[in-house]
Amino acid sequence: MPGPEKHLNIGAIVFPGIDQADLTGPFEVLSRLPNSTFHVLGKDTTPIRDLMGLILTPTMTFAQAPPLDLLIVPGGWGQEALMDDATVLEFIQTQAAGAQYTFSICTGALVCGAAGLLRGVRSTTHWSAFHLLGYFGAIPVNARVVVDGKHISAAGVTAGIDGALRVASLLRDERTAQVIQLSMEYAPEPPFNSGTPQTAPPDVLEAALAVTRKTTEARLATAQRIASRLGIKPV
Q1: What share of the chain has pLDDT > 90, as a percent?
Q2: What is the set of active-site residues?
Q3: Confidence grade of residue 1 (pLDDT, cut at 50, 70, 90)
Q4: CA atoms within 13 A on the CB side of 185
Q5: Per-residue model confidence as pLDDT tens digits over 134-187
Q6: How far, in Å, CA of 21 to CA of 77, rounded?
Q7: What is the overall mean pLDDT for the chain?
Q8: Cα dist. 129→17, 82, 103, 156, 210 in Å?
Q9: Is the pTM of this model over 0.70?
């Protein structure tokens, strides 16, 4: 754990089709870390649209990014285009090698997998893509947040807040993370117990599966192709 005197450079990549909550949830937490700078990173600084049309603007390009203490890799349906993007994958590989931690949210884990970061690493991701982790050599763990050495992963979308609080405690300390949590008044009380496939009513689960079915099929084909490229035989 670095001392409070060390300035932290935190960077999150953004891309068209990102799920903005994968970025903005962790941003809400980690931008509050004392003595730190949060960089929003893109291949260029052109504004991009998230999955639902929200416009996000990178603050600097990959080439301008400093060495990062924490690299954040969000997910979203636009993640598919990153799986074969050499510029993005090389940036992730380079920054992850020097960072204290790499933090994936939702299907950002699949991008980390395509960059070769998940071989033998315990990881989680969104429930609709959980079965794909093995294609990248990961050890799937059905948990909201998983910490395995330098790699921290959060499950779907809102789990990014939970994961970011864990990261805050690792980069600083638990008291700092708790102060941030209180400042955000993060004490969720969801109105329905349908937040996981295990607790959702069957008809709700089927409706959610219908929404993600085409994307899930595309992700499977991509995962199989990437596994072949990486020489990984999923268990």
Answers
A1: 96
A2: 106
A3: low
A4: 1
A5: 999 999 999 999 999 999 999 999 999 999 999 999 999 999 999 999 999 999
A6: 13
A7: 96
A8: 16, 16, 17, 10, 14
A9: yes
The two most distant CA atoms of the chain are separated, in Å, by 52
Q: What is the distance between the alpha carbons of residues 3 and 173, in angstroms, rounded to a whole number?
A: 9
Which pair of structure tokens corresponds to residue 69?
């203490």
Q: In this structure, are strands 145-148 and 151-154 parallel, antiparallel, or unpaired?
A: antiparallel
Tokens of 68: 């990062």
pLDDT at 2: 64
Cα distance between residue 169 and residue 177, in whole Å = 5
Q: In the numeric block, which tokens belong to residue 81?
A: 């285009």
Place of tokens 């499977």: 220
* DSSP per-residue codes, the chain: ---TTSPEEEEEE--TT--HHHHHHHHHHHTTSTTEEEEEEESSS--EE-TTS-EE--SEEGGGPPPPSEEEE--STTHHHHTT-HHHHHHHHHHHHHSSEEEEETTHHHHHHHTT--TT-EE---GGGGGGGGGGT-EE--SSEEEETTEEEE-STTHHHHHHHHHHHHHT-HHHHHHHHHHHT-----SSS-SSTTTS-HHHHHHHHHHHHHHHHHHHHHHHHHHHHHT----
